[in-house]
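Objective 1b. Sequence-to-structure analysis of YbaK/aminoacyl-tRNA synthetase-associated domain-containing protein.
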Amino acid sequence: MTISPTLHNYLAAENIEYDEIPHVLTMSSALTAQACHVSGDRLAKAVVLRRNDGYLLAVLPASHHLRLADLKASFGDDIAMAAEGEIDRLFADCAHGAVPAAGICYGLDVIVDDSIRMQPEIYIEAGDHETLLHLGRAQFARLTTGSRHGRFSAHD
């Protein structure tokens, strides 16, 4: 498996430029950053959240952890972590646990942590555990156009 078809089709339709970076099989964003010699501050990880009215994708640096209380304070108390089965259904064309930080192409609202938005370049999962996508800041901004943003993570 490489880039998920849903993500690939969206990037092509929107003319978003990126580079594919193959890497050894990894099962966490921290290990992916190490394998690719990329700063965890520049690797965007996606956390799927459930709300009363559907799902939400939180995008934050791999070097950070989600502060759910901060996220709830800014975006509403009805937010909770999604279950693995829910995530697998939402991202059916992705490997289990390899959620791309590109909720728009999956019909999800997105919240982007301010700390990842300021990076000069961003890396995202491609939908498997062996491929990263490299985007410049402007291309990542296009990928997350219309997304809300705020501070809801802390450095590990």
